[in-house]
Specification:
The complex is a heterodimer.
Chain A lengths: L1 E12 L2 E12 L3 E5 L6 H9 L6 E6 L2 E2 L5 H6 L2 E4 L11 H8 L7 H11 L1 H5 L10 H13 L5 E5 L7 H16 L3 E6 L2 H7 L2 E6 L2 E7 H6 L1 H8 L2
Parallel strand pairs in A: 3-8, 3-9, 6-7, 7-8
Antiparallel strand pairs in A: 1-2, 1-4, 4-5, 9-10
Chain B lengths: L5 H6 L1 H4 L8 H9 L2 H14 L7 H26 L7 H15 E2 L4 E2 L2 H23 L4 H21 L1 H4 L5 E2 L5 E2 L2 E2 L3 H23 L2 H11 L1 H6 L4 H27 L1 E2 L6 H14 L4 H17 L3 H19 L3 H25 L12 H10 L7 H20 L2 H21 L5 H19 L14
Antiparallel strand pairs in B: 1-2, 3-6, 4-5
Classes of the chains: A alpha/beta, B mainly alpha.
């Protein structure tokens, strides 16, 4: 079953076309990665999916429902959650407060959601009274994911999770993503780090100047010579 | 800010940890250990006991003004400290509340509503006006919001001055009814002191509960990062409107009490200088902290009151000068040299001036008693030295700016003449104009506090995520 579908989406910033005729599917429970170099349209794809940018043509479907004209808050309440680029935690607030804010609209059992997040990230439970700004980089990434998971989404969007992290932490980070995905949650990872992403993903898309250059299973993409070409240009 | 590697990040983690710094830190640390319920109880008991220590109506009036400023600071703290909205029109809600109460309880329109009903209407009307101002402003950020709200405040005063038929124009509304609650009529300053104190405690309690609620947390999140808050599905615009409405209602409450205490309302009560005092209280106390807003209001209000009287102001001036020297000049040898040098310089100059040109020492300092006699023998002060005082003031400002720019060694040397010049300017000019001097000294106090505690007296350190 398809959770998120971008159907022939074309997005403009003013006069400039960023995305052209883009088709992307993320199925329930799938881990999909969206790869591409600088200025290939990765972030715009994510913004279009989330509703921060409206496509000029094409449709965005969430869980079978056409949400093209719906605002971001609606889409989020329908089961999307995002871990934003640079994490964007509420630095002077505690870990617990950050988590509680993540479940701001959720009407489910708050304690249960907290337990689930603490189960995934015991480190967050240990540090729940600490201010978010004082966490280490890896812990901050855990908190950013935990905060997103508090609304109990069906689909988690991740914007550049490896950005600004040391290689060791990047690896740890992707393990966390794989772990979250194993709980049955669909994840769409937008990344520059192709090898790392493809190692954990089921499928991958490669973007090049706003178009899908490659779309295949992760294993096939890892072997592909075209991936290097798409990244480095012809 | 440049992004740095995570290993460095971890290594520097200690430096980012919130800690207690500065001279007052043990006090702040102790305060942080007091549980919230005990703090509010402490506030209530303190406010209840205070009037027993005095029989003076004047002191009680100062108490009322301080408490009103505290309530206003608490309300402004919701908008500025929690939601992070720079609202420069806040004073208008205070005025609107006062005028609404006055109109509903005076001969102006011939209406005399029962107090609870009038206050309820004031609260609702102020909250609605807050929403109204919030509606066009909620999409504005920072400076833009500040400009729009600043104009709103100005428009309010203009309207009040010009709508003579309703507001009484520049002469305001006199003969406002006193508060009557449960059959008790509030008449004396003591009555109103307890009323205002009760209101302040209730406002503090309510704000504490709201601050710890989901909405309170969301306000702080919106202040920190509106985009991230939006991504967490927080209704950012609605939250801003809520903050505006709550802050305005609290200002309206203070306004209605003020109207009853003053038995009248006048446009001049609600002009920008008073807004600056409310901001001073919030910033001095530490934006975002309830106890800070109250403490800030007390410091601002009490220091302004002390500076009103020339004698007290003089004692305060020399006291602060001495305290500053004691706190900042180290080691003791240097301090002794500076103090001794200052005294010697004064005595020498005084002796020379008295011998060469006796008129130069003909003036008498403002202070009386031992301090006055000592100053008389130390300071070269001609009779009616207004012009010399003006020149001295300009030179003093220049000298202080120079003082902050030179090297440590020169600074110590410069300290002696600067202190002497400051004393001269104080006696020759500043003490003659108490209304101006108060503002100057309050400004100086703010600068000093903000340099030593940038987040205010009880504000917590802000952290950056790198």
């Amino acid at each position: 079953m398809t959770l998120l579908r971008l159907d022939h989406v074309t997005t403009f910033y003013g006069q400039i076309r960023i995305l052209e005729d883009l088709c992307i599917d993320v199925g329930a429970g799938e881990l999909v990665c969206l790869l591409g170099g600088n200025a290939s349209g990765k972030s715009t794809t994510l913004k279009t999916a989330l509703g921060l940018v409206r496509p000029r043509s094409g449709r965005v479907e969430l869980d079978g429902e056409d949400v093209t004209d719906r605002p971001a808050s609606y889409r989020i309440s329908k089961g999307m959650a995002i871990v934003p680029e640079n994490r964007r935690l509420f630095a002077p607030m505690t870990v617990l407060e950050n988590l509680e804010l993540g479940g701001y609209l959720a009407d489910g059992d708050r304690e249960q959601a907290l337990d689930r997040v603490y189960g995934l990230f015991p480190r967050l439970h240990e540090r729940r009274t600490q201010l978010a700004g004082t966490l280490s980089g890896g812990e901050q990434q855990m908190l950013a994911m935990g905060r997103a998971l508090m609304s109990e989404p069906k689909l988690l969007l991740m914007d550049e999770p490896s950005m600004g992290l040391a290689p060791v932490l990047v690896e740890q980070n992707f393990e966390i993503i794989a772990q979250v995905n194993e709980t049955g949650m669909a994840v769409l990872v937008v990344e520059q780090n192709a090898n790392m992403s493809l190692a954990i993903a089921d499928r991958g898309y490669v973007l090049q100047t706003g178009r899908i250059a490659l779309a295949d299973s992760a294993a096939a993409l890892l072997q592909s010579e075209d991936l290097k070409k798409a990244y480095l240009g012809r | 800010m440049a992004r740095i590697g995570v290993d460095e990040w971890v290594a520097e983690s200690d430096q980012r940890t919130e800690g207690y710094r500065g001279r007052a830190s043990p006090l702040v640390a102790a305060w942080d250990r007091v549980p919230p319920a005990a703090r509010i109880l402490l506030l209530a008991v303190g406010l209840a006991v205070f009037p027993l220590t005095t029989g003076s109506d004047f002191v009680l009036r100062v108490g009322i003004n301080t408490l009103l400023l505290a309530i206003l600071a608490l309300g402004l703290n919701v908008v500025v400290g929690w939601a992070g909205l720079l609202d420069l029109g806040y004073i208008a809600f205070y005025g609107f509340g006062a005028y609404t109460y006055a109109l509903l309880s005076s001969e102006q329109l011939g209406i005399h509503l029962p107090t609870p009903l009038a206050v309820l209407i004031v609260l609702v009307a102020c909250a609605l006006l807050g929403l109204l101002l919030g509606l066009p402003s909620r999409r504005l950020l920072g400076d833009y919001l500040a400009i729009v709200t600043l104009f709103f405040g100005q428009i309010f005063v203009e309207l009040v001055v010009n709508l003579d038929a309703v507001t009484g124009g520049p002469s305001g509304i006199a003969g406002v009814d006193p508060f009557v609650l449960l059959g008790f009529e509030f008449l004396t300053p003591r009555d109103y002191y307890y009323l205002t104190a009760g209101a302040a405690v209730i406002v503090t309690l309510v704000l504490y509960l709201i601050g710890e609620s989901r909405t309170g947390r969301a306000w702080r999140a919106v202040r920190e990062d509106p985009l991230a808050a939006e991504m967490m599905t927080m209704p950012v615009n609605l939250l801003k409107l809520k903050a505006f409405a709550l802050g305005s209602a609290i200002a309206g409450l203070a306004g209605s009490i003020f109207a009853a205490v003053q038995i009248g309302v006048f446009p001049r009560n609600f002009e920008t200088p008073f807004l600056i005092l409310i901001y001073a209280a919030v910033i001095l106390g530490g934006a975002g902290s309830l106890a800070g807003a109250i403490l800030g209001a007390v410091v601002v209000s009490v220091s302004l009151e002390l500076l009103r009287d020339a004698d007290q102001a003089t004692v305060l001036f020399y006291g602060l000068l001495l305290a500053g020297l004691l706190a900042r000049v180290r080691p003791w040898r240097k301090l002794a040299a500076v103090l001794g040098g200052t005294i010697a310089l004064g005595l020498a100059l005084h002796a020379i001036a008295a011998a060469v040109w006796p008129e130069a020492v003909a003036g008498t300092p403002q202070a009386t008693g031992a301090l006055g006699d000592a100053l008389d023998a130390w300071l070269v002060l001609p009779e009616g030295a207004t012009t010399a005082g003006n020149i001295g003031f300009v030179v003093l400002v220049a000298a202080i700016i120079l003082f902050t720019q030179v090297r440590e060694r020169t600074r110590t040397l410069l300290l002696v003449p600067v202190i002497y010049l400051a004393a001269f300017v104080w006696e020759a000019r500043l003490v003659q104009e108490p209304s101006v001097t108060r503002q100057l000294l309050l400004g100086a106090l703010l600068v000093v506090v903000m340099i030593s505690r940038p987040r205010g007296l009880l504000g917590s350190e802000r952290k950056e995520i790198v």
